[in-house]
Amino acid sequence: MTQNAEHILDHSELFRGDEYQQMLANKKALFENPHDPAEVDRIKEWSKTPEYREKNFAREALTVNPAKACQPLGAVFAALGFESTLPFVHGSQGCVAYYRSHLSRHFKEPTSCVSSSMTEDAAVFGGLNNLTDGLANSYNMYKPKMIAVATTCMAEVIGDDLNAFIKTSKEKGSVPADYDVPFAHTPAFVGSHVTGYDNTLKGILEHFWDGKAGTAPKLQRRANNTINFIGGFDGYTVGNIREIKRIFKLMRIGYTILADNSDVFDTPTDGEFRMYDGGTTLKDAANAVHAKATISMQQYCTEKTLAFIKGHDQEVVAFNHPLGVSATDEFLMTLSRITNRAIPNALERERGRLVDAMADSSAHVHGKKFAIYGDPDLCYGLAAFLLELGAEPTHVLSTNGSKAWEQKMQALFASSPFGKNCRAFPGKDLWHMRSLLFTEPVDFLIGNTYGKYLERDTGTPLIRIGFPIFDRHHHHRYPVWGYQGGMNVLVKILDKIFDEIDRKTSSVGKTDYSFDIIR
Amino acid sequence: MTSLPTTIQDVFNEPGCARNASKSNVERKNGCTKQLKPGGAAGGCAFDGAKIALQPFTDVAHLVHGPIACEGNSWDNRGSASSGSDLWRRSFTTDMSETDVVFGGEKRLYRAVKEITEKYNPQAIFVYQTCVPAMIGDDIDMVCKAASAKFGKPVIPINAPGFVGSKNLGNKLAGEALLEHVIGTGEPDYTTPYDINIIGEYNLSGELWQVKPLLDELGIRILSCISGDGKYREVACSHRAKAAMMVCSKAMINVASKMKQRYGIPFFEGSFYGIEDSSDSLRQIARMLIERGAPAELMERTQALIAREETKAWTAIERFKPRFAGKRVVLITGGVKSWSMVAALQEAGLEIVGTSVKKSTEKDKERIKELIGQHAHMIEDMSPHEIYKMLKGAKADIMLSGGKSQFVALKAATPWLDINQERCHAYMGYVGIVKLMEEIEKALYNPIWHQLRQAAPWDEFDWKRQAKAVAQMHAQAVDPVRGANTNGVKTISFSNKSEVGDGESAIAAHGPNLVEPAKSCTNSTARCLACKDIHSDLQPPALQAAE
After folding, report:
1. Residue B500 — very low, low, confident or very high, per pLDDT cuts 50/70/90?
2. Which residues of A are annotated as catalytic?
3. Which residue numbers delimit the Nitrogenase molybdenum-iron protein beta chain N-terminal domain (chain A) (predicted)?
4. Residue B137's pLDDT is what?
5. Can you list the positions of beta strands (E) in B303-381?
6. Chain A residue numbers touching B457 (CB-CB < 8 A)
7. Which chain A residue's Cα is nearest to B458?
8. Interface residues of chain A, partner chain B, Cβ below 8 Å
9. CA of B527: which chain A residue's CA is closest?
10. Is some CB atom of chain A closer than 8 A to the CB atom of B417?
11. What's the complex ipTM?
12. Structural domain count, chain A
């Protein structure tokens, strides 16, 4: 039966029908010149062997299934965290469409971002005209308070000088002379999205603190007792930043969240379209120079930014996506030390609850082996939490992780008896991970949505923690930081562990003698 | 058919129960179970006991006659494993309503039995009496009799409404029901000289299956197991067995001893927990079967099998010994026999610092004394307060217990392992003991315990806050109410912090008078950090160092 208007079938069902199946089989037999299925199977099995793994790890030029994105994605993410700010990507428009869809698919929110839409002639003659027209158009059409400019590879390859171009644009009257147009060079061929986040945040702070590209006097720091907080590129930004604000409030700390995109990625549906929502005010961004210290939750997202801030005589502290009890302890104690505020009883009780929950469920996580991949800081935080739970983060892989990251990971492994057989893999991709999962199997895989292919291929159950999560909704609303966040991560891990036990015992009449109600 | 009070009196006359035998007539009349103390935390009721004892019968429909409470809370809470039917997991209840309470629930019960017969056609239906229908006078014996006649299938009344007594009494009443209505009502297709019954074994996590292959190898047939992975027909035929092994004597001793009286089936009390106990039980089975006419060569084969299995198990356990050196265990068991676990744990080099004997017979206690010496802590009362005190006092490294005591252990920051009915692992036999060791090792070395025993790290060094806390303490000593409301940095914990959730013990430990912080604090342990700070403040440095 083909499609029938009385009862329309979804694609997942329709093509299972006989005529479609036959059509596909005929196409394969008559036109595709397929290999012998036995040969295909043989190669498939071979690709699971240690021998193949060796060849796989010897790859030099080809990257297969990379677990990273490009700099401008991080740039857009950071720029959206400022009040009424329009991210403007100078370069080809296709790239920009990707960033918008990527962020929207994860956060289920529209992403406001424009491009200078460079074409072939711009590539030949330079993108100045596109930038000038682009700034003028977006300024007039979308009325932002600030336009944050980043670049794609195209603009970088031809060597467009943003500083000079923006100056010239203003002279040509595209935007008022005193209008805020911070910028950052963010070519995709260097680093990853975490680098782009870093460059953009630094660009924006530099703009406000260091005299707005020569158009205003540099700010003089008058130290106060507030602290700046930077979340870094974080798929859980909505839940996390709200949780962090709650913690600050409990501790009665004066703070500025830099690049606070928790509202713009979670606008209410009440009939009003908010192109911009919330975010760090431009005033706060400027005044952040006076803060006592700046705390970054993700070291590898803020290396340049923190160095810049340190240059303005602030204390800077970087964490590695702190998850779990000890990491959160350290975070809170650092806050307490810097601000001289005590950690309130309410937080101590939350801590006790997390410890309690971990103890209640410890037997189920203990001794389980995990493979983790993702951004370097997230990998570190997750691995540390797993060690705390008595689990073994056997393979930890970060495509955008560096040699320094690897050393840091190995030091973490060395600090725990559960880290004995664990290893960090910097610069490797998910095809490497596939070999690892086949040759040294683990119980669970932690990663983003793309891990589902590995899950299907290797049979390793996937726990979705990371960015992007496209095929599950609303995870970004739940924090993973703080003790409450640790609880969320713990529950996510446990849910999968129990689902697995149920799955493995659910076969009727065969294994369901252990398909139990009480776990 | 005997009345319920008569049956109960009969159960209390149990000659096989050593404890009962040592009592005076008056005491015996009062019953062998302790009277429940109103206002105290208590265990399950007689209905619960009957239900859990019989629920492992797998091809039987278990129908609970009563309001939703009884079945609603007990549906599928037994970790037994079935090799066949899953009917036993289906939740059947008459779900009595107000109308039934007013007009009687017998008709509803009858119709429920009818519907089960029509829709499921099980081997048998067990009908459980509960408090409400028992009080309004529903006669389930008569309903079952009528339904049996009408539908031509066994409909067995299990007359153990909750109010008649404890869970343990319920176990026994369930056994009485089997004796009265089931055992001896069928005949096996054939018999062998190697047929045995296993009584009081529930196949939790399928652990009997870890032993069964050994019996199979010896050619010994489990004619029936009461009630783990049990089949109705097997139990009906169980009176043809040559010998019986009694596993949980506290629950089903009446079944074993009455089967001995009625059918001449000798029994012994044994256990498959631990290497030596497993070997012992196998030898006993062989010995009894030989006495009843099995060829004597059975013993040789049994000895050979034991030697082989023991060597394997000892080798496997060897690797745990260095990990267990100096580790101390508290053992709080419900059904599982304490002494047999004690032996198993000692085999692996663990030190037993205390064990519960609530459900142990006098004989069991003697064995425990033999095993761990005269000074062993034997706990009669299993109140949370008692366990908590024991964990703190004995400074045990791990507690093995049922799920109910789990949280007491965790709040006392002691590792804990589930060895009762809700556990996820099978510990029986030579394989099971190795699994148990593995689980103990995991529990002992889980990093969470370190975390649990520590307070928040900021409490360790925050001298400023300590000073504040001490100041607050003084304020509170003057006016506890206002002191507590000042909402300073942190409220001081006057009751021992780790006892949160166990108000009973908090009050017992410190008395209701919270105006004496110093006293309560000096009694406290290192876990209460606010107390500790004050503690060190009140003590000379030498004492602090000694701590």
Report:
1. very low
2. 153, 157
3. 1-56
4. 93
5. 328-332, 351-356, 377-379
6. 329, 333
7. A333
8. 325-326, 329, 332-333, 336, 342-345, 348, 351, 355-356, 358-360, 362-363, 366-367, 387-390, 416-418, 508-509, 512-514, 516-519
9. A352
10. yes
11. 0.73
12. 3
A-B CB pairs within 8 A amount to: 87
State in words which class domain B33-181 has. alpha beta
What's the pLDDT tens digit per position in B246-282? Answer: 986 677 889 999 999 999 999 998 888 888 889 999 9
- Residues facing A228 on adjacent strands: A256, A294
- The model carries a pTM of 0.82
Same domain, yes or no, for A311 and A245? Answer: yes
Domain assignment of residue A8, yes or no: no
Three-state SS across A61-127?
A: CCCCCCCCCCHHHHHHHHHCCECCEEEEEECCHHHHHHHHHHHHHHHCCCCCCEECCCCHHHHHHCC
B209–A contact, CB cutoff 8 A: no
Which one, of A194, A187, A118, lies nearest residue A157 by Cα?
A: A187
Contact A355 B451 (CB under 8 A): yes
CB contact under 8 A, B82 and A513: yes
Task: Report the helix count and the strand count for chain A, using DSSP H and E.
Answer: 21, 12
Instruction: Judge: domain B319-452, CATH 3.40.50.12380.
Output: yes
β-pairing, A444-447 vs A369-373, is parallel
Task: State which H helix or E strand residue B227 sits in.
Answer: strand B221-227
Residues of chain A with Cβ-Cβ distance to B407 below 8 Å are 360
The first and second tokens of residue A422, run together, are 């664990």
- pLDDT averaged over consecutive 10-residue blocks of chain A (519 residues)? 81 88 92 92 96 96 93 97 97 91 95 92 91 95 96 92 96 96 95 96 97 91 96 97 98 97 95 94 97 98 98 97 97 96 96 93 93 98 97 97 97 96 96 98 98 97 97 96 98 97 89 84
* Dist CA B277 CA A437 (whole Å): 42
Q: Which two tokens stand for residue B522?
A: 């000096």
Q: Is A207 inside any structural domain?
A: yes
Q: Are residues A432 and A369 in the same domain?
A: yes
Angle between helices A345-365 and A324-339 (to 10 degrees): 160
The confidence band for B467, taking pLDDT boundaries of 50, 70 and 90, is low
Biggest alpha carbon distance in chain A?
Answer: 79
Q: Residue A233: give its domain's CATH number.
A: 3.40.50.1980
How many CA atoms, within 13 angstroms, populate the side-chain half-sphere of residue A433? 38
Kindly tell me if the per-residue pLDDT of B33 is higher than 80. no
Domain-embedded: residue A352: no
Bridge partner list, A280: A82
Mean pLDDT of B368-386: 70
Instruction: Please name the amino acid found at residue B93.
Output: T
Of A362, A385, A420, which to mutate for an interface test with B (greatest number of B Cβ within 10 Å)?
A: A362
Same domain, A302 and A175: no
Record the tokens describing residue B182, joined without a space.
């089931």
Most A CBs within 10 A among B391, B418, B458, B485, hence the mutation to make, goes to B458
Provide, as residue numbers in chain A, all residues whose Cβ is less than 8 Å from the Cβ of B402: none
CA max distance for chain B? 84
Chain B's closest residue to A360, CA to CA, is B410
Those residues with Cβ within 8 angstroms of residue A326's Cβ, 6 or more apart along the chain or in another chain: A384, A388, B451
Please tell me the least confidently modeled range out of A237-246, B163-172, B532-541.
B532-541
Give every CB contact of residue A2 below 8 A, 6+ residues apart in sequence: A17, A19
Q: What is the dihedral of CA B45, B48, B49, B51, to 10 degrees?
A: 160
DSSP line for B367-435: HHHHHH-TT-EEES---HHHHHHHHHHHT-SEEEE-GGGHHHHHHTT--EEE-STT-SS---HHHHHHH
Report the C-alpha gap between A338 and A87 in whole angstroms: 33
DSSP element (H, E) containing B208: helix B208-218
